[in-house]
Amino acid sequence: MDKPIYLDCNATTPLEEKVRETLVHFLTEDYGNEGSRTHEYGSRAKQAVQKARDQVAAVCGAKRDEVLFTSGATESNNLALLGLMETGHKLKKLHIVSTRIEHKAVLEPLEWMERQGFEITWVDVDASGRVDPQAVVDAMHDDTLLVSVMHANNETGVIQPISEICELLKDHEAYFHCDAAQSYGKLLDPLKNPRIDLISISAHKIYGPKGIGALVARRRGFRKCPLTPLHVGGGQERGLRPGTLPVPLIAALGAAAEIAVKENDKRSKRCLDLRAAALEALGPLKIQLSGDPEHTLPHVINFSVGQIDSEALIVSLKDLIAISNGSACTSASYTPSHVLKAMGMDDDEANNCVRISWCHMTPDVDWEAVVQRIQKML
Asked: What is the distance between the alpha carbons of residues 371 and 291, in angstroms, rounded to a whole number?
């Protein structure tokens, strides 16, 4: 049976062949423990990890010793946010600024911090899905410890004005965290801004394996970002994350990061071509786009078609294309998207929206068949 074409790349991406080769090599040949210092297998594993640090760091203009390997962006977000709690209490800086469209991996740790005595200011977005940089800065206090703003939204693909926020923050001591799960390896220049202190990434968003990611924690001059560990039990990862390093996953992440830079232009062009084809085909349906199309990732469209419920639309198209109606992390809850509601939609409007997201490996879609199926529902 033929599979539907996969159009849910914001949830997870297929594995790049060269990345797969790297993964298998370190699973089956150079399978040593990076912490083993007495033999060649351990040395090779250590070299692979160090190479991966360089590869991951290079994407955002960081340094090798500023890369901490984690299980993915969710853990990175937790380490970046909860890891600053002790510093906040020491400095008596208990205020944090963030936005209402963040991923649950940021929202929920911040809500937990709020219950521990921190004050969180939630900045709204407008109907475009973008936050006003000045509103972020205006929300800050003298005791603001941290600002956390995602780079690109996982549901709408809307890109946030990270560079403008960096410029406005240049004279403030607050730490700046960016959840870059959807943009790392795709939007290259903005993440190179040295004003971003903390960057969270996941390998499975850039054609690498699930279960590995990183937190880039930049130094300020010679000062490390003052994080404290969430787990104890070993000295790995500069004492911030204990446990045996998963060398095959780390090496695969490094390979994915390096390839993402080398093939960035080619990948972007393919994604833009697919986007143009999708919008042209869907145009006669008078779809309603969610968010500003001028500030959206080239591989994402979030839209509604009349009053068609998203669940009904997904089921109707499931043999043609595999799509979603929001974040994969909350898809089982069947509640209206907090992102779309933050953009001013009511429950019904939000429940009518679907997301299609593709990549450079996505084959051409039979949009004529898709449109014909949707027309039967109108």
From this structure: 22
Residues 6+ apart with CB under 8 A from 82: 109, 112, 113, 230
Domain 17-262, CATH number (from 1.20.58.1480, 3.10.310.10, 3.40.605.10, 3.40.640.10): 3.40.640.10
Sorted by where each begins, the domain ranges of the chain are 5-14+264-375, 17-262
Between the CA of residue 307 and those of 243, 278, 312, 371, what are the distances in Å?
50, 20, 11, 16
Annotated catalytic residue 329: yes
The position carrying tokens 């109108």 is: 378
User: pLDDT tens-digit profile of 2-61?
Assistant: 899 999 999 999 999 999 999 999 999 999 999 999 999 999 999 999 999 999 999 999
| Active-site option among 9, 225, 329, 359 | 329
Domain spanning 5-14+264-375: CATH 3.40.30.10 = no
